[in-house]
UniProtKB/TrEMBL annotation, chain A:
One of its GO terms (molecular function) is ATP binding. Pfam families: ABC_tran. It comes from Amylibacter marinus. Residues 18-253, 270-517 form the ABC transporter domain. The keyword Acetylation does not apply. The keyword tRNA-binding does not apply. This is Heme ABC transporter ATP-binding protein. InterPro entries: AAA+_ATPase, ABC_carbohydrate_import_ATPase, ABC_transporter-like_ATP-bd, ABC_transporter-like_CS, P-loop_NTPase. Keywords: ATP-binding, Nucleotide-binding. PANTHER family: CARBOHYDRATE TRANSPORT ATP-BINDING PROTEIN MG119-RELATED, GUANOSINE IMPORT ATP-BINDING PROTEIN NUPO. The lineage of its organism: Bacteria, Pseudomonadati, Pseudomonadota, Alphaproteobacteria, Rhodobacterales.
UniProtKB/TrEMBL annotation, chain B:
The chain crosses the membrane at residues 14-36, 57-83, 89-105, 112-132, 144-164, 205-224, 244-267, 279-297, 303-322, 334-352. It is a multi-pass membrane protein. It comes from Amylibacter marinus. It is found in: Cell membrane. This is ABC transporter permease. CDD domains: TM_PBP1_transp_TpRbsC_like (cd06580). InterPro entries: ABC_transp_permease. Pfam families: BPD_transp_2. Keywords: Cell membrane, Membrane, Transmembrane, Transmembrane helix.
Length: 522, 372
């Protein structure tokens, strides 16, 4: 069913490393994959792109033997095969690098790579063989890693390399990478892509799963697009463009940029002064953080995740008590000696869209209407009487679902049964409806599909134009660039610098994210 | 991920427990047949023993009362995701609270002052006995299962010491208190009915049964209609989200445990104020533990808890009748039947979930696979 001839690797005759035909898979009532056809020419980088929940990961898990397809056929190098477990797929030469690394942090690189091929009761033989393999792979692909280093001491990019080595050690000829760049800086992403290209030129077939269009354009030879559990198209990368892919993914035309007018900053609503936080293990996770934020302004915070953004958000929203310094917010003060809890801050006019809606933003087992009052359940929104008035809540919820286009618009449906984008809309509806003067946003569009991203961005801009002071933390650089008026880059718990969004670009931000000062990065 | 389609609510709440019950009964039936009795006859005796014979219904409902209170205790804590194993100890100490009020106030005050104070005393002492483990869990991270179990032992030791020592009735040898003044006696149902000229068989069933029904209502309103209940459920389902929402998680856990303990403590109103009119050794007799099965089977919902309590009431009363009527069916055999039902409706409660769900889809009662 391929729409066009796919690009194959150079002079070898068109041969497919992997062919899928009519793959279907259901989880309960959800059909995650429907009649999927896919042909991957050997020795190419093949992108699989689609929104969250489009079924990409399910398809890859079927391929890797973690799930079993309900129907369909699979051929590897032209040979039909049945994959019942990951052991089968490894034997067939399939390796997978998961989105969340499967490494033992307290083991060394060597011990991690050895896992699964220890070679008998004593480790000696397996260790020697693995060392040789590591050395050979390192030389062939330019992936040199110290075999004795502890995983916990390595940075994320290197850990990922260990994952790739682990997959290649087993002799993988087909390598699946599931959202590999989510945790990398732009520079690390570049390096990863270089490695992938070397691997491809050596004949390894690579499946790259992602929802980032620019990565597809940068590194793949062919791309297959998934939407709502089906394969909606196959393209040769050189013959397509980001706009077309986005349209295929979403099913309609989307704006890839954020449209906004100039900001009209008013008085300072939030000012952070020498803020510091110490982790439970005694490490400094936030150091000497200072900035001001005015009403009608969006401050973006960029940085590789895990560089203190989470702690900063927690302090700003009252979920964590600062260890040093203070926050002046809406004329009040937060410090170690005078902390404020999230409820007090909400009453003052602060709203908080948390980084992780599943952990903080929603109670997944609650109905949508119960979630719409979370944090505001002591207010009149739950009725004015001694008891909760479900009718009042229901009316509120239905109204918000209508305004924010939450689908399905059923207030009695449990939060877990909404898609990621709609869950996020429920959270955003709740927080924006409280009419905040300061809004703290973590990852506004993580795991949200392209169509909903556009909507969420518009809501945030509208709130800014209404005079709200907004802090947006996001790992998506494009998003930070598009939304923000000013951008602060964080590295190792510190601010590397604050730049005007209009005067910067991905390159400069990327270097700053790696800790290189603003001046040096220019 | 499992391949099980979701079970509709009605099937989860009604069909599944009924299936579990019947499987348990079927296995018991086989065992009874193996030891040489007719299982149908045996179950017939059980039903008659629980409902038909004179006074039997009274006894059944008297047991039911205990199970309602201890089941509510487990369910309240469970909504905050706390596993309160300490209902036994909390009920025991609740009896102490009732006794204190009875001895301190009873001799001087009329029943309409004494009884409310006794009931309050039972609830307050039970609440305190659950609050301490709640505090230790919330503030110190001591696991609630461990601490509540330990508090059962503490309660048992404390009560032995009190009943065999300071509180023992002078001049006799059995570990129990003196009988309360009549102002601290909860009236029997048979006495109440007699006032209206209706004669029913005498049984231990007393006014506390109505108190238990009221408690079911209070539980429902508390959990689903109050802001406190909302906070308890939020803490139970997602403590991180509760923290985000500005709910004081530790305080909510302590409050939920206190309410849980209060329900358990109220069990003493039945045994201490309604039946024995004094505190005797081991009056809790394992009702606190059975409350765990009641809450599990009743899905932590008041209607379910009532039905499960009734079932266990039937098992206790009908089981005693079995023991009485059949030579080969001993007290231990009756325990086995109860154990089977606890096993199937408690520990294995969801064993039949996947096949039932698939069956419902196959016969078209439930919509199966739909588009993602």
């Amino acid at each position: 069913m391929s729409d066009i001839e796919l690009k194959t690797s150079g002079d070898t005759p068109a041969r497919f490393a992997l062919e899928l035909q009519g793959i279907s898979k259901s989880f309960g009532t959800v059909r995650a994959n429907r009649d999927i056809d896919l042909q991957v020419p050997s020795g190419t980088i093949h992108g699989i792109i689609g929104e969250n929940g489009a079924g990409k990961s399910t398809l890859m898990n079927i391929l890797y033997g973690l799930h079993r397809a309900d129907a369909g056929e699979m051929r590897i190098d032209g040979t039909p095969c049945k994959i019942r477990s990951s052991a089968d797929s490894i034997a067939l030469g399939i390796g997978m690098v998961h989105q969340h690394f499967m490494l033992v942090p307290r083991f060394s690189v060597l011990e991690n790579v050895m896992l699964g091929s220890e070679g008998g009761g004593l480790l000696r033989a397996g260790r020697g063989a693995t060392l040789d393999t590591l050395k050979r792979l390192g030389e062939t692909y330019g992936m040199v890693v110290d075999p004795n280093a502890l995983i916990s001491d390595l940075n994320v990019g290197t850990r990922q390399r260990v994952e790739i080595l682990k997959a290649l050690k087993g002799g993988a000829r087909i390598l699946i990478l599931d959202e590999p760049t989510g945790v990398l800086t732009p520079q690390e992403t570049e390096q990863l892509f270089e490695i992938l290209k070397v691997l491809r030129d050596d004949g390894v077939t690579i499946l790259l799963i992602t929802h980032k269009l620019d990565e597809i354009m940068a590194v793949t030879d062919n791309v297959s697009i998934m939407r709502a559990g089906t394969m909606v198209g196959h393209r040769e990368t050189a013959q397509t463009n980001a706009a077309e892919l986005a349209e295929l993914m979403v099913g309609r035309k989307v704006l890839l940029t954020v449209e906004k007018g100039p900001a009209n900053p008013t008085e300072i609503l939030l000012s952070v002064d020498n803020l510091g936080a110490v982790s439970s293990r005694g490490h400094d996770v936030l150091k000497d953080m200072s900035f001001d934020l005015r009403g009608g302004e969006i401050l973006g915070i960029a940085g590789v995740s895990g560089n203190g953004q989470t702690q900063l958000l927690e302090i700003l929203t009252g979920m964590r008590v600062p260890d040093r310094g203070q926050v002046n917010i809406l004329g009040d003060k937060i410090s170690k000696t005078s902390p404020k809890n999230p409820r007090e801050l909400r009453e003052m006019g602060l709203a908080h869209i948390p980084e992780d809606r599943h952990i903080h933003g929603l109670v997944l087992d609650f109905e949508a209407q119960e979630n719409v009052v979370l944090g505001y359940h002591r207010d009149d929104i739950t009725g004015t009487g001694a008891l909760i008035d479900r009718d009042v809540i229901n009316t509120h919820c239905a109204e918000r679902m209508e305004t924010f286009d939450v689908r399905p618009s059923n207030p009695a449906l449990n939060a877990k049964n909404f898609s990621g984008g709609n869950q996020q809309k429920i959270v955003i509806a709740r927080e924006i409806y409280s009419n905040p003067r300061v809004l703290i946003v973590g990852q506004p569009t993580r795991g949200v599909d392209v169509g909903a991203i556009e909507f969420i961005h518009k809501q945030l801009i509208a709130l800014r134009d209404a005079g709200c002071a907004i802090v947006v933390v996001s790992v998506e650089l494009e998003e930070v660039l598009g939304l923000s008026d000013r951008i602060m880059v964080m590295n190792d718990g510190q601010s590397v610098g604050i730049v005007d969004a209009a005067d910067t670009d991905v390159n400069q931000l990327g270097l700053m994210m790696a800790g290189i000062s603003q001046e040096a990065a220019e | 991920m499992s391949n099980t389609p979701p079970l509709p609510r009605w099937a989860d709440l009604i069909l599944l427990p009924v299936i579990n019950l019947f499987v348990a009964l079927a296995i018991c039936g086989v065992i009874i047949a193996v030891i040489g009795e007719n299982p149908f006859q045996a179950f017939g005796v059980m039903i008659k023993g629980a409902f038909i014979y004179p006074e039997s219904l009274g006894y059944t409902l008297y047991y039911t009362t205990n199970f309602i209170f201890t089941g509510l205790a487990v369910a309240t804590a469970f909504h905050a995701m706390m596993f309160n194993i300490g209902g036994e100890g909390q009920a025991y100490v609740g009896g102490l609270g009732a006794a204190f009020a009875a001895f301190l106030v009873g001799p001087f005050a009329p029943w309409f002052i004494t009884l409310p104070l006794c009931i309050l005393g039972a609830a307050a002492f039970g609440a305190f006995w659950a609050m301490v483990p709640g505090y230790l869990q919330a503030k110190r991270g001591s696991h609630i299962v461990i601490t509540t179990i330990m508090f059962n032992f503490l309660a048992a030791s404390l009560m032995v010491w009190l009943l065999a020592g300071p509180m023992m009735l002078q001049g006799q040898q059995s570990p129990q208190t003196a009988i309360f003044d009549t102002s601290a006696h909860l009236p029997k149902m048979s006495e109440i009915f007699a006032i209206f000229g209706v004669k029913i068989a005498k049984s231990p069933l007393n006014i506390s049964f109505l108190l238990a029904i009221v408690a079911l209502g209070i539980f429902y309103v508390l959990i689903w209609k109050t802001r406190l209940g909302y906070e308890i459920r939020t803490v139970g389902k997602n403590p991180e989200a509760a923290h985000y929402a500005g709910i004081n998680v530790a305080r909510t856990i302590i409050i939920a445990m206190a309410i849980s303990g209060a329900f358990a403590g109220l069990m003493a109103t039945n045994e201490v104020l309604g039946v024995h009119n004094r505190v005797i050794l081991n009056f809790t007799a394992g009702y606190g533990f059975t409350g765990i099965a009641v809450a599990l089977m009743g899905r932590n919902h008041p209607i379910g808890i009532f039905l499960a309590s009734l079932l266990f009431g039937v098992l206790y009363q009908g089981g005693a009748e079995l023991d009485f009527e059949f030579k080969s069916i001993t007290r231990e055999m009756v325990l086995l039947i109860q154990g089977m039902i606890i096993l199937f409706s408690g520990a294995l409660a969801y064993m039949f979930n996947p096949p039932l769900a698939r069956f419902l889809v196959r016969i078209g009662l439930v919509k199966g696979v739909q588009d993602a």
